[in-house]
Structure prediction request, 379 residues.
Amino acid sequence: MKNILVTGGAGFIGSAFARYMTARYPNYNIIVLDKLTYAGNVDNLLPISDEPNYRFERGDIADRTAITRVFQAHDIDTVVNFAAESHVDRSILDADAFIHTDVVGVYILLDEAKKHGVDRFLHVSTDEVYGDVHEGYSVETDPFAPNSPYAASKAGGELMVRSYHVTHGMNTVVTRGSNTFGPYQYPEKLLPFFITEAIDDKNLPLYGDGLQVRDWLYVEDHVTGIDTALHKGVAGEAYNIAGEDNRYNIEVAKAMLALLGKPESLLKHVPDREGHDRRYAMNCDKLRALGWQRAHSFDTGIQLTVDWYRQNEWWWRKIKTGEYLEYYKRQYAARLAARGAFPQLRVGVITAFFPSDCPYALAGQNYGYGCSTMRGAII
Ligand code: NAD
Ligand code: DAU
Prediction:
């Protein structure tokens, strides 16, 4: 392993991986290839821009000519593929780019890697391929049941990776990470979106009843999990990377507001995401058996994350302009307006009919209108 192509390395997790790898392995050359979509940001790579073992190439993983050139120019022997369209809400609005990158792009990258004879191909996938997990914890042998166009596109890409191992004998490894958070995350995902909006005292649109459960993984732990799978994973296998810190969305939002010293009244229940998975949860004994363990809990990670966004307004304020504002309008204008369409429902205090294990009701707000599940009583 010497010349590692990190595709999608200008995004959130890919850039964290590139920053980590250049420092951790000075003998490896880290070549980042990124299309620089709306989510790709060269600012994420500024901390390593002068490192001797780092290079950047702009390109699309679905562009064979570009990929062939990069494989040859840098004599690539290892690929770590982060490149993806990654936001569920955008896949609901329009899934074209998801099929282009997460399915076709993965196929072209695999095919070119095979022709070039790469030694190792690690593909970064997601817990969303397992779909909604009402109880228990997903293990790597569970069947796929993706529910959003994003999750389906990731499942499609992963299945191509599997096929190249089984059919062509490629040395592939897949990782399935859980909800990742930390510095440099594009402010459309729950935590960076809510943190940056809350800093400006804006309303925070919580989908449905806010009782969906996600498993929160600090970005540096996701990166060390990928490093472990890259070096120690068995060819053809998949490895879950879980934070093992399952939280209700509303609990996550309230923890963030407490750290910022902002009021919970900023939280507004809005109509739910279509096809919204209620719960993700994974078992990661298989990766742990290779020696990985996480270094951060949700509580330590959220503190670091809130501090970073507070101290790095230069990074996110310039993102929240132009295309971002267009997206915000498409995604949230109708949802936030829908609240106003039912003013009579917005008075009252919720006191009853919540699940006994949920202490996270928002006093004074209606729950569940526009949602598939009614969990609160409006009085
Ligand atoms: P991100 O959206 O922040 O970054 C994606 C990067 O891929 C961007 O830099 C973008 O420019 C680049 N890209 C998109 N299309 C490309 C193409 N055709 N060719 C080359 N580059 C392209 O995403 P992220 O949150 O960093 O996620 C990285 C990977 O991890 C994705 O594969 C995602 O599915 C997976 N994942 C993410 C999470 C999470 O919680 N964020 C959890 C598990 C798995
Ligand atoms: O589980 C891994 C996945 O986590 C990754 O594969 C995806 O790339 C990543 O985007 C993430 O998907 P989610 O859909 O879980 O993340 P998101 O940050 O969009 O939403 C987290 C939860 O918060 C989800 O239940 C929806 C809810 N939410 C999100 C937004 C943006 C809200 O209630 N309001 C919002 O405005």
